[in-house]
Amino acid sequence: MKSEVKLLGAWPSPFVTRVRIALNMKSVEYEFLEERLESKSQLLLQSNPIYQKIPVLIHRDKPLSESLIIVQYVDDVWSSHSPILPSDPYDRAIARFWAAYIDEKWYPTMRSIRGAEGIEEKKRLIEEVKKGLGLLEEVFKNSSKGKGFYGGDQLGMLDIALGGFLGWLRVTEIANGVKLLDQGNTPELVKWAQRFCEHDAVKHVMPDTGKLIEFAKTLKR
Amino acid sequence: MKSEVKLLGAWPSPFVTRVRIALNMKSVEYEFLEERLESKSQLLLQSNPIYQKIPVLIHRDKPLSESLIIVQYVDDVWSSHSPILPSDPYDRAIARFWAAYIDEKWYPTMRSIRGAEGIEEKKRLIEEVKKGLGLLEEVFKNSSKGKGFYGGDQLGMLDIALGGFLGWLRVTEIANGVKLLDQGNTPELVKWAQRFCEHDAVKHVMPDTGKLIEFAKTLKR
């Protein structure tokens, strides 16, 4: 039988991990099609001609790309349980704001650490990433309302947006011998990260840090 | 009486124009607080500490920034009429995809024409902008379903996302002696642009092209 939901992805991609978590939260069965960086499939090229990037979700033969747009789509289509976006319009807007901050500011800074020229520049970028996590710690305190996740009792949009990057955050910590999430700066996020990774919707799709480190080495070559 | 809705903006900003159109569509009365580039207000700095940018919408003393996030918020809060996002989840995701394309790819290219070094580079950028408009012409044909707007009969998310830039598109055309929207490449968008600018929600808030040209000269100085 032809699968109704297909996901074109690759296991190390934090953006793909986000979509997998959203699908897991909604108990949606899907076929995972692993793409290879070095030779993109015809299906990927025709499903996302603009960016030619994963993830692509194909639902009833209709393709969608951009991870946060897919996550919102999953929430819209499988709306009967486990809401991902907050129900209050203001809370929803705030979740979108910080998710965009993570994608447009915080993650590009973390990613640029690897290619930084000189120790001073690297230090500056690391401080900037930590400062961003400090902001996201404050957002957590405001939005979790004493519960375990950004979304309160349940995983939500911001948990998925930030949590998808936890594997690469750990790789960055190890590669640079620093703590980005630490007791001093982000005590709540330290506990949140552990809860997040142990969550049923997350634990089987969060890439293993050791494997990511091996993968990062192949990227360097 | 204190106004329930305030908008911190500036008349030449395409991002502010988007929010004004959305508020007009919903017949929301608001107080418009004109910000000055050279000295940002205390209210702006404290309402949007992360980016310190307009537009900021303040609704019942709670601030929001990022134009497309505000537009979605306006649609969520004043939901009883004139829907801005499509009701179908897939159509909604597609509208979000192309709105993000406009903000992340198309507009940055158009904006960079002004500072381009050399005629060849300028030509290349102009061709890229036209190619993007060609794509948006195809999207229009698919989503308008023979009606006047991206959203069908009524203005929608994509009309607002692209339409907000029409003033600056014309300035770019005049400054460079080119047609970006033209009968050959984008016949449907040529007609759409005229309809859009004549729409009741748009015509009083779309900046005048002549005034924008004068404003652009002050930016150069």
UniProtKB/TrEMBL annotation, chains A, B:
<dbReference type="InterPro" id="IPR045073">
    <property type="entry name" value="Omega/Tau-like"/>
</dbReference>
<keyword id="KW-0216">Detoxification</keyword>
<dbReference type="InterPro" id="IPR036282">
    <property type="entry name" value="Glutathione-S-Trfase_C_sf"/>
</dbReference>
<dbReference type="GO" id="GO:0009407">
    <property type="term" value="P:toxin catabolic process"/>
</dbReference>
<dbReference type="InterPro" id="IPR010987">
    <property type="entry name" value="Glutathione-S-Trfase_C-like"/>
</dbReference>
<dbReference type="InterPro" id="IPR036249">
    <property type="entry name" value="Thioredoxin-like_sf"/>
</dbReference>
<feature type="domain" description="GST N-terminal">
    <location>
        <begin position="3"/>
        <end position="82"/>
    </location>
</feature>
<dbReference type="Pfam" id="PF02798">
    <property type="entry name" value="GST_N"/>
</dbReference>
<dbReference type="InterPro" id="IPR040079">
    <property type="entry name" value="Glutathione_S-Trfase"/>
</dbReference>
<dbReference type="InterPro" id="IPR045074">
    <property type="entry name" value="GST_C_Tau"/>
</dbReference>
<dbReference type="InterPro" id="IPR004045">
    <property type="entry name" value="Glutathione_S-Trfase_N"/>
</dbReference>
<dbReference type="GO" id="GO:0004364">
    <property type="term" value="F:glutathione transferase activity"/>
</dbReference>
<dbReference type="InterPro" id="IPR004046">
    <property type="entry name" value="GST_C"/>
</dbReference>
<feature type="domain" description="GST C-terminal">
    <location>
        <begin position="88"/>
        <end position="219"/>
    </location>
</feature>
<keyword id="KW-0808">Transferase</keyword>
<comment type="similarity">
    <text>Belongs to the GST superfamily. Tau family.</text>
</comment>
<protein>
    <recommendedName>
        <fullName>glutathione transferase</fullName>
        <ecNumber>2.5.1.18</ecNumber>
    </recommendedName>
</protein>
<dbReference type="Pfam" id="PF00043">
    <property type="entry name" value="GST_C"/>
</dbReference>
